[in-house]
Structure formats: structure tokens, C-alpha cells
Amino acid sequence: MVKKNKKNIQQFQEALLSNTGFIKHESNEPSNKSESPSLIEDAILKKLELLAEFENIEISELINKALNHFLRLKGLQLEQAKKARDEKNS
């Protein structure tokens, strides 16, 4: 039987912030917000909360949107880097 390896937003944030691989990252610790420190700075979290309230969406949805946007921006940057490398090697 194949075990599904679903990732949650905290795992994606940890991977992005740590600049490390995310393959088969397993954590046996239960996720409890009151026990673990936040990966997001308080000032940034307050801004995210304000924006989420303004947009009338959950903060987790806003964070997902922000991460998706960030990854799209990095995707464009990666394509530009590939083109620049190819032009340099030509």
C-alpha cells in the first residue's frame, strides 16, 4: 500500500525558510501552535492578519496565496537565469 505524503503549510514554510530539500521530511512531533515558535516574525504576522481580515479570508489561505505568488516570482527568475546562462554559453 502506498503511503500518501501530504504536506501542510508549516512544512512548506520550514522548507522555504531553511533552504533545504523537502523530500520525505517526516516529523513525529505533534503540531501545536502554542508550543512551537512561529516561523513568521510578529510584525509580518500582524500585517498578514490585517490583510486577511481586509480580504475576508482565513490567514492560512492568505499565506498559501502569498507562497504561491512567491514561487511564481521565483519561477520567472529561474527562467531568466536559464536564458542568461544559455546566452553566456553560446
Give a verbal description of the structure:
This protein has helices at 9-18, 42-55, 59-89. It has 90 residues and is mostly helical. It has a domain at 39-90. The radius of gyration is 17 Å and the shape is elongated.
Give the topology.
Layout (H helix, E strand, L loop, with lengths): L8 H10 L23 H14 L3 H31 L1
Helix pairs in contact: 2-3
Helix content: 55-70%
- What percent of residues are in strands? under 5%
Low-confidence stretches: none
Structural class, by secondary structure, is mainly alpha
How would you spell out the order of helices and strands?
A: HHH
Could you give the distance between the termini? 48 Å
* Biggest beta sheet attributes: none
Radius of gyration from CA coordinates = 17 Å
Q: Averaged pLDDT, please?
A: 77
How many beta-strand runs?
0
